[in-house]
Amino acid sequence: MTAVPPPAAGPAGHPLGAERVRQLPAGGLAGLLMEATGGDVVNLAVGTPGWPATPPELVKQAVHALQEGVHQYEDPAGNTRLREWIAHSLPGRPDPRTELTVTAGASEALAVALLACVDPGDEVIVLEPFYENFLSAIALAGGVPRVVSADGPGWAPDPAALTAAFGPRTRAIVINSPSNPTGRLLTGEELGLIAELCARWDVVAVSDEVYASYVYDGAPHRSAAEVPGLADRSIVLGSFSKSHSVSGWRLGYMRAPEPWTRLLRQVHVATTGGAASPLQHALAHGGPALADGWDPAGSMRPLRDHAVRMLTAAGFDCAVPEGGVYVMAGIGGLTRAPSPRFVRELAQRTGVLLAPATPFFAEGRRGTRYVRVAFNRPEATLLEAHRRLNGGPAPSAKQRSTFP
């Protein structure tokens, strides 16, 4: 993990800031946003959605809420109608009054969940590769990450290593299915083992299911809230950022059993007090209207297949992701350079920006042979990236028609 450099000393000679701040990762992906803001760059590095397009009905409802004077505090637990809609969309239909809380994005939900169940010094298991904010939230809670590494191209955690990671200091495990960055789904056997271990060691499972709406090829997605033995000790995190292309609205939610929801709401009130009222109203009124015709996975699957074909043609080594909006691609056949240098040189040569995989590993060196590629982009963007990466014309309309 790359930590923030030590800060300058204060007037009394002490370091500025708290120790937890110095434990935060340096934010390698955030810097890519700045790199991609200028020049002729095709940005496939960050997950900010370019596809699907933000539904006009949501925009209409947001404007309407603002014009109608929805400007003040909402119920801290979230707009009642929005919670009812979320509950209706989730397996097992949680009680919207006692088991759902609307948050300022899934990032707040992650931080609140770990603050609610982890004391300083407690261990938190995290499966590697992982979304880099997992380490940030663990650090803010004062927890100690216990990393269980997996290797590509399958990225399946070793059951023996996972079992050995649990112990008397373990208080939580963070799981992510579909995974950012690999697109892998946890199997039923893996979830069953996690449930068994959590029960044995009295551990809470914090399950990031932000990409649950993007599962492909008929593969089953199982929420932690559906797994016997895990449902009563899981905190499920969700978000509308990717599924409805409203990442700037910062709207997510937590699903948890009633006793845990009471604790989570206390931390939620202490940290943010609630999410933006007019935007909650927009989703509560506009979201249900999209339900019948809204198929984000169906519209994303051809883009996934296009991205895999594009990368394979350019010499990358990659498997087809089962879910999510990213491809984890190996660069061993293209270069001996580490991925941070490779992506800089590739961007300079082709104008296509990818993400080095180093931020997704506790030891960055494990990510030096991989890049992450976001494919939640319009078809035209992927076609242009294909042209640039492969040094020739983009696929013809006839060729594109062969994409599954």
Q: Can you describe what's shown?
A:
With 404 residues, the chain is of the alpha/beta class. The protein has 14 helices and 13 strands. The protein has two domains: 19-53 and 295-400, Aspartate Aminotransferase, domain 1 (Alpha-Beta Complex); 56-290, Aspartate Aminotransferase, domain 2 (3-Layer(aba) Sandwich), CATH 3.40.640.10. The chain has helices spanning 19-22, 28-35, 56-67, 80-89, 105-117, 133-140, 159-165, 188-201, 258-271, 277-290, 296-313, 339-350, 379-390, 397-400, and strands spanning 42-43, 100-103, 123-128, 144-149, 170-176, 204-208, 234-239, 252-255, 317-318, 326-330, 352-353, 355-356, 370-374. Strands 2-8-7-6-5-3-4 form a seven-stranded mixed β-sheet, sandwiched between helices. Helix 3 (56-67) runs antiparallel to helix 10 and helix 4 (80-89) packs parallel to helix 10. The model is unreliable at 394-404 (pLDDT under 50).
Features:
2 domains; Aspartate Aminotransferase, domain 1; 404 residues; disordered C terminus; globular; seven-stranded mixed β-sheet; alpha/beta; Aspartate Aminotransferase, domain 2; four-stranded antiparallel β-sheet
Going by CATH, the architecture of the largest domain would be 3-Layer(aba) Sandwich
State the end-to-end CA separation: 38 Å
Query: Please, how many domains?
Result: 2
Round the Cα radius of gyration to an integer and report it.
21 Å
**Can you identify the CATH class of the largest domain?**
Alpha Beta
Report the total helices: 14
